[in-house]
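Lecture notes, part 5. Sequence design as translation. It can be helpful to think of inverse folding as translation between two languages: the language of shapes and the language of residues. The source text, in structure tokens, appears below.
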């Protein structure tokens, strides 16, 4: 029977993070696959810095802001009937 469970290695001991159905003293083989690490925030900042200024001179930022605020004034809901 093959089963995959999550474990944590702490102080030289592999501890299961889930309930296991083994008898005391039972022997079995263990295969260890490393869990990929989550990307670190540092890498996100580096990626953000490399893209900074990518829209420069392609759009007029002030005009974009004016359009956004003007679009917010448009009502798309029908009036309430009382």
């Amino acid at each position: 029977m093959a089963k995959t469970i999550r474990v944590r290695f702490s102080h030289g001991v592999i501890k299961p993070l889930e309930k296991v159905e083994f008898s005391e003293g039972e022997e079995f083989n263990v295969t260890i696959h490393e869990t990929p690490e989550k990307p670190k925030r540092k890498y996100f900042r580096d990626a953000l810095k490399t893209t900074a200024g990518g829209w420069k001179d392609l759009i007029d930022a002030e005009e974009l802001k004016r359009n956004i605020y003007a679009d917010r004034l448009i009502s798309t809901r029908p009036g309430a009937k009382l």
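The translated text above is only one of many valid answers, since several sequences can fold into similar shapes. The chain has a mean pLDDT of 84.
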